[in-house]
Amino acid sequence: xxxxxxxxxxxxxxxxxxxxxxxxxxxxxxxxxxxxxxxxxxxxxxxxxxxxxxxxxxxxxxxxxxxxxxxxxxxxxxxxxxxxxxxxxxxxxxxxxxxxxxxxxxxxxxxx
Amino acid sequence: xxxxxxxxxxxxxxxxxxxxxxxxxxxxxxxxxxxxxxxxxxxxxxxxxxxxxxxxxxxxxxxxxxxxxxxxxxxxxxxxxxxxxxxxxxxxxxxxxxxxxxxxxxxxxxxxxxxx
Lengths: 112, 116
Prior knowledge:
The complex is a heterodimer. Chain A is built from no helices and eleven strands.
């Protein structure tokens, strides 16, 4: 069935280093790929998204790349800061964008 | 963080009892969603609704029921048929079909349900 796999489950980096989180999806009809950040005890919030007609998108220190042929997409965070520490979820939307399948999440630790 | 609310924040129920979780939004969004969050498993879709009086099952709908009688409200009932109901439940909404194909979901603060 529809599935989104996310790796790694835990990532620890030194402040200032880059962090990369990778996801693969199974349904080639997926056309919308959001990334959400969930800080401890808080609700998930969208940090960046990409649509299937675009290969890369950047927003300051955050970038997302999409490879439709390989059915994978990645989140890149540069110059990491302690406040980047959180759980990050990738997702893929099906059925016209309504049915969203989430990855299992990556817990990012940024050490000062 | 306003716009979509869930109540209560914590809920305790005895095994075998049905319980209803509230979700309300004032964002004028057409689409609403319910997710279950368990440690290490991300967010799993229970039900979603694209418009009033319409809803579809997600991946783990068994033991749950919903209604969408009003645009602003999408309550979730956890029935006694749900084998492992203890979890963190998140409601979300999005603009729906009036927006671009695939659009941002705004999440509520969540309800932590514990079945004793």
